[in-house]
Inverse folding.
């Protein structure tokens, strides 16, 4: 790293709310890279992932029902993603398609469920189809004629660009996902419909928080105003919807291939968003007793939501029961006269068997004071209870046992990019994984005294990663902060619960909306 930061650079950095030392550390990360995480084993239902009996499910649901009556629960929905990613294959097709000659129609030879051909074959089945017809009509275009003449680019222009519906410039939250007779619901609306069933208090208050890009907040607010009154009457709740944007101070500097700061045509430093790990600050700023986290695109049709309603309450109830015990232990540690070795041993067993934290090997030789310090550190942390679904596809990032920097072993959510795939032993552990995390979390970010944790103190800064991008056609290296579900929460107390696959219904590309879980009828 040859280039130094100038005085102007330092002023630019300060204006973003960052410190020069933050940026210098980012530059060092580009130079040194990030160490791979140390996997011990895949977490499975035999060791690390709990399968709950019906009796315990009923207990946790009842516990959460009583809790929610007089505590503030907020549903947190990361919704900063632009919808353009959903239409990537359509954009690519549109950039090449120029008519109906044989070589052009060859672009439609792939007929799989993720293909452009499949999209057009089933286009009448999307919930947004009536809107699309209106958009075409406003341009004096006839849908049936377009289809007969294979002028598919006209449909995509009306769907994706400012010549019509402009879906390519909307947030994913505002894309119509589902139909209910004459009613269509966006992903945004589905999250509010869901929240009424598991995130409302006894007095009907229902808090939902969306993260957003700055240019999308007004669009979301206007959309919500359009159906708020109807939904509040339908679900007998009063919604409190709030928004936050990714703070500029969480951006990461871009560098060239020599790891020198990349600059724009005016010589200014170029920064890029730091990935979803940057949303840790948004999460930590919320004043809530309990936080339910779920991605914007993970929703399904009403007819399949019962499992989602149930298991959100189950995960919440489990966390409440766990937290009550942890808080009781921590209050006991504040009274040394009650901390006999027998009590210490009970707490030790709880940390190891309930919190799944295996102490360092040398802990056998620790004195009582050292054990008390260790227990306090492990008990007095944010908590997350994570739903895990069976992995029916290729093995990928998910739940694992990991060695931590203090020598302990605990459960972590790990992305495949964090694993040394060239190490045969680590690759074997990855291949043996049976479950993955669908971003289905319930969190508590307050300590036993009711104070908010500083979540930045529980991040593993060594779990970021580096990727190659381009800016104006020039190659750059980008860096992502430790991910929100993995590195940013690596020092949280973590529990894994198996949940049904029916609770995981992501929409990564627009064709996913043709799956049964997103349809009005099977």
């Amino acid at each position: 790293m040859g280039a130094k930061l100038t005085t102007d650079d330092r002023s630019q950095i300060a204006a973003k709310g960052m410190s020069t030392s933050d940026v210098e550390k980012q530059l060092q990360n580009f130079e040194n890279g990030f160490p791979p995480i140390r996997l011990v084993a895949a977490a499975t239902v035999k060791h690390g992932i709990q399968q709950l009996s019906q009796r315990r499910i009923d207990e946790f649901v009842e516990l959460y029902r009583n809790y929610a009556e007089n505590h503030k629960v907020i549903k947190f929905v990361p919704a900063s993603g632009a919808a353009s990613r959903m239409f990537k294959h359509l954009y690519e097709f549109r950039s090449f398609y120029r008519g109906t000659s044989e070589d052009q129609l060859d672009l439609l030879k792939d007929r799989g469920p993720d293909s452009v051909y499949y999209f057009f074959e089933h286009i009448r089945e999307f919930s947004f189809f009536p809107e699309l017809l209106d958009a075409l009509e406003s341009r004096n275009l006839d849908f049936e004629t377009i289809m007969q003449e294979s002028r598919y680019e006209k449909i995509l222009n009306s769907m994706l660009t400012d010549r019509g519906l402009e879906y390519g410039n909307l947030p994913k939250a505002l894309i119509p996902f589902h139909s209910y007779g004459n009613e269509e619901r966006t992903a945004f609306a589905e999250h509010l419909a869901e929240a009424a069933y598991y995130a409302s208090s006894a007095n009907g208050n229902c808090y939902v928080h969306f993260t957003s890009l700055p240019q999308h907040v007004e669009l979301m607010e206007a959309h919500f105003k359009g159906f708020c009154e109807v939904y509040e009457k339908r679900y007998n709740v009063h919604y409190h919807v709030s928004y936050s944007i990714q703070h500029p101070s969480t951006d990461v500097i871009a560098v060239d291939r020599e790891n020198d700061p990349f600059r724009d045509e005016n010589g200014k430093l170029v920064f890029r968003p730091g990935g979803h790990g940057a949303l840790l600050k948004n999460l930590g700023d919320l004043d809530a007793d309990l936080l339910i986290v779920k991605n914007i695109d993970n929703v399904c049709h009403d007819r399949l939501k019962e499992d989602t309603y149930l298991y959100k309450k189950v995960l919440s109830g489990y966390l409440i029961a766990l937290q009550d015990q942890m808080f009781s232990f921590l209050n006991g540690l504040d009274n040394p006269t009650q901390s006999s070795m027998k009590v210490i041993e009970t707490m030790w067993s709880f940390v190891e068997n309930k919190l799944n934290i295996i102490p360092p090997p040398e802990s056998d030789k620790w004195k009582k004071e050292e054990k008390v310090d260790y227990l306090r550190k492990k008990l007095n942390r944010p908590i997350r209870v994570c739903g895990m679904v069976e992995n029916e596809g290729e093995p990928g990032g998910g739940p694992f046992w990991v060695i931590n920097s203090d020598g302990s072993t605990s459960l972590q959510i790990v992305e495949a990019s964090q694993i040394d795939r060239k190490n045969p032993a680590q690759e074997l552990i990855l291949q043996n994984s049976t479950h993955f995390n669908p971003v289905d979390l319930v969190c508590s970010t307050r300590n036993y005294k009711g104070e908010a944790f500083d979540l930045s103190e529980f991040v593993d800064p060594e779990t970021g990663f580096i990727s190659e991008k381009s800016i104006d056609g020039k190659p750059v290296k980008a860096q992502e902060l430790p991910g929100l579900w993995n590195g940013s929460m690596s020092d949280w107390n973590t529990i894994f619960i198996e949940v049904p696959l029916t609770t995981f219904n992501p929409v990564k590309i627009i064709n996913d909306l043709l799956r049964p879980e997103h349809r009005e009828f099977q």
Observations:
- The chain has a mean pLDDT of 92.
